[in-house]
Amino acid sequence: MDKDDRAKISLIGPDDVIGGRITTPQKYAAGIPAVKVALEHAMKEMGLKRSIATLSKLNQKEGIDCPGCAWPDPKKRSSLGEFCENGVKAIAEEATTHTVGPDFFKAHSISEISTWTDYEIGKSGRLTEPMVLRPGRNHYEPISWEAAFELIAENLHSLTDPNEAVFYTSGRSSNEAAFLYGLFARSFGTNNMPDCSNMCHESSGVALTETLGIGKGSASLEDLYEAELVMVIGQNPGTNHPRMLSALEKCKENGGKIIAVNPLEEAGLIRFKNPQEFSGVLGGGTAITDLFLQVKINQDVALLNLLIKKLIERDEKVGGIVDHEFIQKNTQGFEELKQDLEKYGEEELLALCGVPEAEVEKAVELLVERKKVVVCWAMGLTQHKNGVDNIKACVNLLLLKGSIGKKGTGTCPVRGHSNVQGDRTVGITHHVSKNLNDAFQRVFGFNPPEKEGLDVVKSIKAMYEGQAKVFVALGGNFLSAASDTLYTAKALQNCELTVSISTKLNRTHVVTGKTALILPTLGRTELDVQDGHRRYVTVENSMGRVHRSMGNLAPHSSKLKSETEIVSQIAQAYFQSNSSIDWEALGKDYDLVRTKISQMFKGFEQYSDRSKGAGFDLPNNARMGDFSMLPNGRAQFSVCRLPNHQLTSARFLLMTIRSHDQFNTTIYGLDDRYRGVFNERRVLFINPIDIEELGLKKMDIVNLVSNYDGVERMAKNFLIAPYNIPKGNLAAYFPETNVLVPNNHYADKSHTPISKSIEVDIV
Ligand code: SF4
Q1: Residues enclosing ligand 1, CB less than 6 A?
Q2: For the segment 425-482, what is each residue's pLDDT rounded down to a tens digit?
Q3: For the segment 82-96, what is each residue's pLDDT rounded down to a tens digit?
Q4: What is the pTM of this model?
Q5: Which positions ≥6 away from 588 have C-beta within 8 Å?
Q6: Domains observed in the chain
Q7: Helix H segments across 370-477?
């Protein structure tokens, strides 16, 4: 690779096997190994002093909100530490002592960096000052903040239509920054506000809004503790939301039962060794799952329809299983669902879902005997063509049992990024809502645009086709997060300007528009001081609780700005004196931003005061059993169609997954301890019978090919790893496999990419 030729940028990075080790998967999550690995990460990246300073405040009241997942904090916080192994990794990644300044960019061209893995790029360190990549150049160079803001303003002014700009938001941004960002995009004139939710829980939002009148979950942490039965479907909490295991453990201590539904048998669903409990350190820990239903990829509707069908039939014989009183009083569509289910034979549904009949019967028994049910899920349900129906099928089960709007019951879509839910609450959405537009008019005196904006897949298409020319990202690593990596890379390269507001270097900084800016921002762990006063931001967790987050470390560089300030200064540079909004004041005074939020959105009264300590819960109609905003004021049962995959004998269904050393696109390390993988990410988890039938053996190297609409996409070099996964199903890590997911194949209604059910061949 010629280091100084920008034309030679690698769009997907290296795709060689490193030479890892594949061993037996672990049968439990956490325990002493988790503490050891967490400490190793902390010491390596932060050292002792910074580790103590950050971890003692992590997820404590008035402390630092974990920038990892959005799992809620318990009312009473543990003095031993209120975090998991992956929370420590997230903090270590941000508070690392490694930095990336002008010398780094002088030494390394972007074509060179593009040949590094995402892991290597991320480990470079924290960004310290604004950098610009000029057209045709291969090295970033420093730029002043003023010049950077002018460059953005100039490019935005040069557009012939505001809809030629795209404003992306990642789930790390605070409520304050996200609100201001949405305000700027709308006052600039566009609703092009794609966000990371488009790629993960959009299907949940659509399904829950249509069935229960709110696009968020209804269960609280206390509901999980009190539930008689928790179903965990399409979710791997041991890696992706580890502190959820403590909640499940508590549920079990209270006599609750857990059913896990997943194609892969995951360590975190088998046994949890709580490192804060004696039994977790020296004993065997807690068996989490009472019943594991190993469903085939994307056959959750078949399984849920089968369970519901059996429960209805049993109820017709003996009664007391279906909550008729609740259904009568609160719902509609039950008869239509019953009629639809009559169309399917039990044998057909059993064959489709792949779960042995005896296991299905055990699940029915558990459901028959229990009234308080919570269903938890994540990407395993949302990232399919029928992602919305998958969630609606879960809602059907809960409504059948009367398990909505009561203690110990509810829906629990588990969010993967710390403030992805809050960003939506305060106005980050590409959808147009009359109520929201009216609120902007009332509070800020302008009329926001009425044209529907672009979500992630539509934004990529618009950039690819040259209809969008300026791309601004408030956080995130867009290229590695999005599907169809090559297509997305070319889309970004078509832009005149790409702007990344970031804490750390990532792949989106090297596959850029003609001109690119990196604007370095404060992380959650850092002090945010204005006129001698320490500022805090607020976030909303997965269960709708809003609370403060306040950093305590000296910033990595005096040139960092907060996200809120950056957004405010982009707005000031763009509008100059032509805006009735006081952008400068909003950028400095977060209390003022919170006051504006409270004037626009219900439930934020006395926002700053109430965000103290444990914070406050936002209104949640489903939690209260109020369905008045739905047709006829009733929660909706839904008829859910079965998916229809055109698989030949040579084809497989592939689901993309995270490794245990990974958080979304951030790669903390190269191990996936729970699945028995070390020092390797190019791994294909496959059923041993399939390996034999293909004439392959463990550690052989294969390629994966998808073919949608006649377009062949290939992900090269994956090591064969025998695993407990249904025959015909495969799993491999993203972002390595994102190249296989076509941008134009996504979930109906939600447009979430089909990353969990990609039809592929092994070649
Ligand atoms: S469970 Fe999620 S929020 Fe909690 S410490 Fe772990 S990664 Fe952070």
Answers
A1: 59, 66, 68-69, 71, 83-84, 86-87, 90, 241-243
A2: 999 999 999 999 999 999 999 999 999 999 999 999 999 999 999 999 999 999 999 9
A3: 888 999 999 999 999
A4: 0.96
A5: 530, 531, 565, 568
A6: 6-17+644-762 (2.40.40.20), 29-93 (no CATH), 127-195+419-612 (3.40.50.740), 202-413 (3.40.228.10)
A7: 379-382, 387-400, 420-425, 434-444, 456-464
